[in-house]
């Protein structure tokens, strides 16, 4: 996991320049190691000072600044929100400074998975029928249609169909018919309509909304074999009539959608989404670096990964800009950071409103600390592209998408961008699915994994336990991603997650 140090009996000293260690267990007052004696009880995952830190001096973890002391901190003190504050500081973005050629795996040796190749060449990992909604007013009707296909056994004669899923949302009207908010909603719905994991879909509207079904349909660039139906409740003659028509439309789709086979395709066809939720202090030590190791493998095999959550790279974005393949890519990321600084300020907030209470209970003190752990999900390869929320991801390699830190909204944007598998790291125990894309849940610590084993697909806590290295867990995860892409169900799929978690980012005035 890390090099042995004199502080091992207290916790993990991530870099020789760090003036804190991360407690590997609950520490009682008087616990001692490396000449440091703990002065008060410290929960596991929280930080202990291992050197004097003067008022206004930087607190360092990962050899990076995570905050500034508000009072003198002595060796052995608990270091957290009571004596550390967030403060903006200058960061050297040094665009492209760390770019190096990626050592690609020879094509004949590249990994493969069993995927579904669509007529347009896109490769799916799942085979769903979707019910998409143009407006919240059609949400209940969409769910009523989907509910007709939920009873056990109803889809048994269609074993190659993964299910019928209704994706409702809270927008679509009471908004301007142009501008950023409207564009984001249409881009998101278009991304789902074009997603290869949907073999067919019904787009359902009310009829009088701002976000008209007809205007949406004009934007779609669909596989010629994708089955598409559009209707509105008003044209159909009401809710009951629409449910009957919607059910009939989907019944007609089922036999056709069932006629697919999985074939061997290269891992280069995968687009892997990266997200975290309910993070703790171990996230940046175990699950996030392990996911980063898996990302490095995927990129070396020719695939694509998409990191999101712009507020959760804040203060660590310079580690990504240094890996940007061009000035344009690096500058785009810096501009996103500036937009978020203005956005939060205009709304009376601060970038440090994140971490959440749960993050802080898990030992994360500032957004700077959280971000430094979060960027580890992106591995070490070059940053090849930066995308707007829900924009179609076209670059190969490691990329970034502008999304909020709120998990369902972030994941919705990444899936709309084309992600066909999602990896979601969590320390506190988040539960999330994101149909039509399978979501793998990665636990940062063994205690939570054991407590929530029916939700967690992989225990990365074995890294902290000393039972495996980051690279070893990354290799296991890479294989798990391939297996999942080949049809192996994730636990969130087994539990039925993924319909209610569709939450497009809502920007602009609600009128």
Question: What is the overall number of helices?
Answer: 15
Helix content: 25-40%
Strand content: 15-25%
Q: Can you tell me the residue ranges where pLDDT is under 50 for at least 5 consecutive residues?
A: none
Based on helices, strands and strand pairing, what is the structural class?
alpha/beta
Structure overview:
This protein has 511 residues and is α/β, with parallel strands linked by helices. 28% of the residues lie in helices and 19% in strands. It has 15 helices and 23 strands. Strand 6 (58-61) and strand 7 form a beta hairpin. It is globular and about 75 Å long. The mean pLDDT is 96.
Labels describing this entry:
511 residues, Archaeosine Trna-guanine Transglycosylase, Chain: A, domain 4, Rossmann fold, 3 domains, seven-stranded parallel sheet, 28% helix, 19% strand
Write the layout of secondary structure elements.
Blueprint: E1 11-12, E2 20-23, E3 32-33, E4 36-37, E5 47-49, E6 58-61, E7 64-69, E8 78-79, E9 84-85, E10 112-117, E11 123-124, E12 128-133, H1 139-147, E13 163-167, H2 180-193, E14 198-205, H3 213-217, E15 227-232, H4 233-236, H5 239-257, E16 263-266, E17 271-276, H6 287-300, E18 304-307, H7 317-321, H8 327-346, H9 357-361, H10 367-374, E19 383-387, E20 397-401, H11 407-416, E21 421-426, E22 439-443, H12 446-451, E23 458-459, H13 461-464, H14 470-485, H15 491-495
Parallel strand pairs: 12-13, 12-14, 14-15, 17-18, 17-21, 18-20, 19-20, 21-22, 22-23
Antiparallel strand pairs: 1-2, 2-5, 3-4, 5-8, 6-7, 7-9, 10-11, 10-16
């Amino acid at each position: 996991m890390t090099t042995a140090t004199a502080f091992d009996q207290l916790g993990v000293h991530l870099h020789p320049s760090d003036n804190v260690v991360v407690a590997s267990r609950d520490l009682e007052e008087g616990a001692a190691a490396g000449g440091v004696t703990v002065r008060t009880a410290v929960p596991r995952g929280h930080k202990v000072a291992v050197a004097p830190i003067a008022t206004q001096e930087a607190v360092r973890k990962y050899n990076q600044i995570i905050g500034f002391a508000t009072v003198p901190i002595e060796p052995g003190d608990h270091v957290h929100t009571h004596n550390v504050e967030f403060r903006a500081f200058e960061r050297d973005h040094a665009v492209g400074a760390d770019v190096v050629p990626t050592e690609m795996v020879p094509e004949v040796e590249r990994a493969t998975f069993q995927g579904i190749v669509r007529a347009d060449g896109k490769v799916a990992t799942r085979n769903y029928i979707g019910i998409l909604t143009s407006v919240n007013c059609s949400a209940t009707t969409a769910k009523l249609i989907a509910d007709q296909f939920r009873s056990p056994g109803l889809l048994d004669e269609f074993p190659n169909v993964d299910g019928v899923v209704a994706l409702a949302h809270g927008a679509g009207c009471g908004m301007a018919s142009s501008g950023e908010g409207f564009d984001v909603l249409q881009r998101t719905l278009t991304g789902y309509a074009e997603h290869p994991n949907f073999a067919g879909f019904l787009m359902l509207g009310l009829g009088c909304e701002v976000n008209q079904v007809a205007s949406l349909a004009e934007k779609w660039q669909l596989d010629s074999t994708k089955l598409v139906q559009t209707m509105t409740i008003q044209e159909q003659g009401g809710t009951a009539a629409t449910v009957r028509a919607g059910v009939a439309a989907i019944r007609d789709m089922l036999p056709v959608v069932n006629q697919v086979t999985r074939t061997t395709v290269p891992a280069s066809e995968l687009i892997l989404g990266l997200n975290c939720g309910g993070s703790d202090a171990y996230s940046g030590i175990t699950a996030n670096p392990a996911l980063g190791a898996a990302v490095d493998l995927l990129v070396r095999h020719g695939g694509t990964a998409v990191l999101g959550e712009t507020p959760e790279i804040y203060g660590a974005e310079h580690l990504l800009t240094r890996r940007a393949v061009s000035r344009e890519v690096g500058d785009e990321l810096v501009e996103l950071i500036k937009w978020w600084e203005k956005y939060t300020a205009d709304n009376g907030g601060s970038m440090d409103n994140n971490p959440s209470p749960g993050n802080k209970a898990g030992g994360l003190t500032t957004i700077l600390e959280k971000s430094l752990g979060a960027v580890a999900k992106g591995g070490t390869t070059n940053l090849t592209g930066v995308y707007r929320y829900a924009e179609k991801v076209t670059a190969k390699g490691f990329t970034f998408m502008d999304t909020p830190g709120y998990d369902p909204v972030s994941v919705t944007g990444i899936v709309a961008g084309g992600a066909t598998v999602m990896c979601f790291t969590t320390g506190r125990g988040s539960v999330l699915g994101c149909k039509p894309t399978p979501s793998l849940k990665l636990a940062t610590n063994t205690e939570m994994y054991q407590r929530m084993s029916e939700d967690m697909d992989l225990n990365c806590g074995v890294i902290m336990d000393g039972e495996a290295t980051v690279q070893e867990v990354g290799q296991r995860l890479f294989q798990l991603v391939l297996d999942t892409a080949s049809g192996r169900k994730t636990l969130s799929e087994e539990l039925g997650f993924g319909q209610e978690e569709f939450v497009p980012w809502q920007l602009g005035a609600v009128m």
